[in-house]
């Protein structure tokens, strides 16, 4: 058993003594300089650590703890049992040099354009930063992207962002940790942007339960995030925006959701052109329908308002309609009825409810969060919550107002006035496109043609159909299908698809992505790369496995000269020269650790396997041997190894993986009966090895609702090489 100690050498002329690491084992001794110096009076020889509460002492002790952990790991927990002194020195010096090179890098406060033309981007729902990574890898004809702001709601997303982009890459990219549905989100985002023009917005708002038709029955906390995403687009008006989503969005509600998304995107208008539309409306305005036409004008005018002004604009619209009702009331009801009738009161109070939409939306949002926090679902509480949330929705309030009008005994000559009030309220809740459809119903054929010409000039973004992008077509060793909606501003070139960078028979295989990491066993952690001998590991199939390795360009295209293997690209990194790391990769446990300088500068990060018991390992061996979970079911049953787990995905070395999700235990390594490490899953997502996933490695139970550990960060990410292909296509077309 080796003992690991720290001691001080003789002080230099300034009175600082070098700290040395000493290892004693079986009568032999290894000594190494840590590269750190300290005044002897500030070093406790018994505890072998710096004294005092200063930040400097804290950082020195963290460094010594780090070296002690790596020495202990090497000598007591590695597969190798016998070491010669030179081997121990080499490995530990590698850790020491890596740490020393990385510990004194300052964050760059201002990005200076080194070359070319920068285009700015913002990453919403950023998660780990898959979009951000891909955009920083893209460069075309001296054009590249400048990272301005990322946003997400989770602390570990922020920690991973700050560690990667601020500390490691030295950028001044901001992070906004806030729910996009909160009232002051846009104000805070604009403050972070600090007056810069944004050229591209990217992001993937979760769309599990939203319905743009107003049929929100689940009232999930993810409801309608897409609409808030579009609010950001309306304010920033970027040249392009990219919305990524699951393939199922195309067929949700029979394809209606997809069409509604496109309609909402087409409803974003060029506010400078609104006067042209208003002039047309006023020109065809008829005295008999003046109120309805004025309502449409007011609805169109709402599109011009900034978010901070929309509340008063909406209230102004409702009060405009309410004034119409006030003038109508004496004509349809006598004084006593107007004060006491339940239907009149419903209409009158309905206007009050609609005028305070912002307050009700805030209340609804808070209730949904609490409902989700308390797991209210599939129980006797859920209907009461759902009914109340439905009651306070604008559509439901307008429906009650409409039914109240129908219940009143309105004289025939005033029925149309009542119908116009209802139509005006419905205009209030419609999209811009739906308002235009109402306007068209009052136009003749020549007026409709004129209106269509105006609409062509007033629509700010062009989009026809989304398209499905398979990540494996862009050099990612994973068959991950995602839907991309790309909105192109009307002054920009239209983008309808992202051309593949590899053909079907050129796709990157799982073996190419993972073979050099295959030196780790069950319940082990590696902090440095180790040699992998394919001929020894694969014996009879070594030639076949070696043939899978190809030299490729950065985007996965096989090339004969000057290329690198996928694994080599992962180690070298794919960022353009401007964004090369300023410090070596490092890991921190949490935000407090980052603030206190508790960085772990390891050569390899996130490469730790799960601690699976003998029964699980035996089960995985059976499934791996059969090559398929379904085929293994009978033998598992016979051996008493069956499980209620729904599925295991056995990786095939010569294929691409299925969609990488957030639970590592769902996958079985192609060569060992074990789950994947975070680093292996990150490789299958095409993240560089220098991208370190911070915080907890995994979590479980109810914590999954609030925590985003490393595995979740990886599984939910956009593959950087897919994002790079998107960014490259935008650079090819952007003006």
Describe this structure in words.
The strands form 5 sheets. Strands 6, 7, 8, 9, 10, 11, 12, 13 and 14 form a 9-stranded mixed sheet that branches. Mean pLDDT is 89; it is low at 105-114 and 209-217. With 735 residues, this protein is α/β, with parallel strands linked by helices. The chain is 44% helix and 12% strand. The protein is elongated.
Topology, please?
Elements: E1 3-8, E2 17-25, E3 28-38, E4 43-44, E5 49-50, H1 55-76, H2 85-102, E6 117-124, H3 130-137, E7 139-140, E8 143-152, H4 155-168, E9 174-177, H5 185-193, E10 200-203, H6 225-236, E11 240-246, H7 256-266, H8 274-284, H9 290-302, H10 307-332, H11 335-340, H12 342-355, H13 357-373, H14 382-391, H15 394-407, H16 415-429, H17 432-440, H18 445-458, E12 461-462, E13 467-470, E14 481-489, H19 510-514, E15 525-526, H20 534-538, H21 542-547, H22 566-572, H23 591-595, E16 607-608, H24 614-626, H25 629-638, E17 649-650, E18 667-668, H26 678-685, H27 710-715, H28 720-733
Parallel strand pairs: 6-8, 6-10, 8-9, 10-11, 17-18
Antiparallel strand pairs: 1-2, 2-3, 4-5, 7-8, 11-14, 12-14, 13-14, 15-16
Helix pairs in contact: 1-2, 3-28, 8-9, 8-18, 9-10, 9-16, 9-17, 10-12, 10-16, 12-15, 15-16, 24-25
Keywords:
single chain; 735 residues; 28 helices; 18 strands; DNA binding; methyltransferase
């Amino acid at each position: 058993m080796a003992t690991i100690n720290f001691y001080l050498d003789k002080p230099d002329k300034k009175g600082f003594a070098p700290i040395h690491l000493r290892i004693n084992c079986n009568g032999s001794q290894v000594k190494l300089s840590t590269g750190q110096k300290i005044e002897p009076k500030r070093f406790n020889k018994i505890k072998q650590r710096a004294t005092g509460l200063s930040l400097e002492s804290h950082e020195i002790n963290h460094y010594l703890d780090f070296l002690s952990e790596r020495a202990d790991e090497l000598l007591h927990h590695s597969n190798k049992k016998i070491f010669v002194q030179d081997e121990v020195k080499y490995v530990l010096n590698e850790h020491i040099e890596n740490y020393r090179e990385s510990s004194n890098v300052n964050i760059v406060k201002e990005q200076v354009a080194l070359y070319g033309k920068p285009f700015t981007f913002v990453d919403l729902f950023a998660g780990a930063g898959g979009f951000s990574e891909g955009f920083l890898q893209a460069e075309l004809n001296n054009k590249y992207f400048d990272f301005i702001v990322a946003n997400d709601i989770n602390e570990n997303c922020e920690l991973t962002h700050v560690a990667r982009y601020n500390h490691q890459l030295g950028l001044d990219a901001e992070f906004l940790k806030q729910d996009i549905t909160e009232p002051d989100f846009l104000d805070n985002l604009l403050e972070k942007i600090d007056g810069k023009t944004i050229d591209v917005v990217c992001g993937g708002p979760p769309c599990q339960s939203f319905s743009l038709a107003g049929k929100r029955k689940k009232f999930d906390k993810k409801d309608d995030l897409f609409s808030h995403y579009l609010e950001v687009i309306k304010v920033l008006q970027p040249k392009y925006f990219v919305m990524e989503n699951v393939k199922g969005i195309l067929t949700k509600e029979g394809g209606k959701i997809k069409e509604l998304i496109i309609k909402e995107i087409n409803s974003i208008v060029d506010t400078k052109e609104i006067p042209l539309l208003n002039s047309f409306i006023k020109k065809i305005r008829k005295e008999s329908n003046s109120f309805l036409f004025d309502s449409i004008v007011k609805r169109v005018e709402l599109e011009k308002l900034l978010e901070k002004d929309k509340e008063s604009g909406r209230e102004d619209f409702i009060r405009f309609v309410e004034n119409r009702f006030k003038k109508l009331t004496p004509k349809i009801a006598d004084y006593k009825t107007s004060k006491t009738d339940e239907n009149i009161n419903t209409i009158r109070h309905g206007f009050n409810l609609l005028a305070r939409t912002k307050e009700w939306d805030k209340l609804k949002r808070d209730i949904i969060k609490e409902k989700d926090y308390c797991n209210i679902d599939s129980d006797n509480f859920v209907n009461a919550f759902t009914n109340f949330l439905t009651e306070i929705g604008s559509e439901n309030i307008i429906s009650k107002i409409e039914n109240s009008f129908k219940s009143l005994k309105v004289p025939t000559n005033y029925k149309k006035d009542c119908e116009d009030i209802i139509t005006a309220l419905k205009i209030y809740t419609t999209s811009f496109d739906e308002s235009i459809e109402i306007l068209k119903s009052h136009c003749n054929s020549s007026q409709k043609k004129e209106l269509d010409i105006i609409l062509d000039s007033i629509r700010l973004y062009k989009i026809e159909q989304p398209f499905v992008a398979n990540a494996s077509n862009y050099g990612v060793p994973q068959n991950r299908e995602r839907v991309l909606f790309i909105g192109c501003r009307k002054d920009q070139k239209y983008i309808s698809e992202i051309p593949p960078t590899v053909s079907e028979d050129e796709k990157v295989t799982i073996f190419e992505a993972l073979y050099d990491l295959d030196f780790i066993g069950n319940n082990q952690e590696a902090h440095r790369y180790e040699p992998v001998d394919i001929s020894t590991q694969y014996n009879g199939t070594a030639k076949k496995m070696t043939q899978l390795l190809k030299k490729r360009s950065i985007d996965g295209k096989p090339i004969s000269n000057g290329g690198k293997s996928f694994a080599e690209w992962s180690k070298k990194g794919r960022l353009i020269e401007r964004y090369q790391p300023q410090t070596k990769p490092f890991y921190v446990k949490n935000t407090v650790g980052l603030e206190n300088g508790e960085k772990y500068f390891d050569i390899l990060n996130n490469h730790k396997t799960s601690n699976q018991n003998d029964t699980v390992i035996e089960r995985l061996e059976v499934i791996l041997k059969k090559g398929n979970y379904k085929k293994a079911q009978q033998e598992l049953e016979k051996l008493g190894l069956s499980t209620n787990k729904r599925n295991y995905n056995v990786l095939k070395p010569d294929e691409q993986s299925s969609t990488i999700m957030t639970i590592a235990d769902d996958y079985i390594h192609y060569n060992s009966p074990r789950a994947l490490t975070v680093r292996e899953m990150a490789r299958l997502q095409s993240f560089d090895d220098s991208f370190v996933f911070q915080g907890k490695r995994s979590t479980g139970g109810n914590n999954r609702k609030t925590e985003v550990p490393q595995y979740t960060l990886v599984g939910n990410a956009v593959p950087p090489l897919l994002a790079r292909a998107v960014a490259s296509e935008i650079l090819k077309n952007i003006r």
